[in-house]
């Protein structure tokens, strides 16, 4: 059964419901009203959790082939309606239509990987006779679903990051409650529509829309919730950890990603990759390039080429195929970025290009000579700003790269494999991209960071490990 949903309803326990209290969903480009969604109450969340308890039992009893078929049908539905999904991603968020189409395509891939990984939730036999006195014991372990998962998702990838939580949760046989960002709830509801259309049993998936301050604590503190999968800011993540209690926690909390460019690098490739990595989705990207350390011998040449390419970046209408970058998610966010840049300039940073705001739009911005004590040098900016620094050599660049409290991903451009391996071993990050910017992710790879960048790993196979538990089975046989 297909439901033509454009917001307005949320999915609780398999039922699409409305509420008198609403949240308006506006296009950040011009603040025009796109739609509205229900503003759920604490009572709605409590009811949702009760329904999910039944959903967890239903999901656990689904055979593996049923889970595979349902997830593939959901992916098929999105593929058949890909342009609708892309349009919603672009309208409610910051992405251009070209960026949104890529996200919709990645969501399809994420779900198909989830379906395939469902058949590979395996255990293994155990050699109990390695312990003296256990010669007459044999056994194995297998993995079972943990129950109800709470997924709290951000605005910057409003479809695919939801799929990264929903796909493996269903593949593992769990129930899942999704609380999407209140500024971009429509994409998550469209993902629920795909699973509704695909025949997912009621109560397995709920997408509940509302303000975090009203329903968030109820979700994260409830004892029936066995895992919280959160993608968002550090402050919110730390608050969840303090409140959650005894349950599994997976967190992706952002970064301040470095890229190193050595003198033997392909300069054209490095410039093109880092410009894209810095300004994709208006820089609202946890993998976005924020700091670039360039070997001193090529600093001037790289800087000139980088500025030239940045100034060619087209800022404008998200729906135009000519546009490279749209607005930030709200004018408030653009003002926050503006203040961070202004603070750096006041402390001695040099503005090479950009630095201009128009409503929610903030021009692609490049700074150099940024003091270490600036907020923009230490924290995640989550906006279209990149910092260029000279570095004497690789060791100096690595030291500076590791100097912040984050460690999600990094990149290095070099043709010297020994230098690449030196960076691999010494950079304190969850992933390193060789001859690419930090802004690369394949949906099947383990994804996550160290330090304040988070806990655990996403990526379907790796999320499935977090969303299941091992159960040991041991047979004591008659004496041989």
Automatic annotation (TrEMBL):
Any keyword Oxidoreductase?
yes
Give all residue intervals belonging to the Aldehyde dehydrogenase domain: 16-473
Q: Which Pfam families match?
A: Aldedh
UniProt keyword Oxidoreductase, yes or no: yes
Q: Name one GO molecular function term.
A: lactaldehyde dehydrogenase (NAD+) activity
Annotated transmembrane regions: none
InterPro entries for the chain: Ald_DH/histidinol_DH (IPR016161), Ald_DH_C (IPR016163), Ald_DH_N (IPR016162), Aldehyde_DH_dom (IPR015590), ALDH-related_metabolic_enz (IPR051020)
Source organism, top-level taxon: Bacteria
> What is the protein's given name?
Aldehyde dehydrogenase
Q: Which organism is it from?
A: Neobacillus cucumis
Traced from the root, the source organism's taxonomic lineage reads: Bacteria, Bacillati, Bacillota, Bacilli, Bacillales
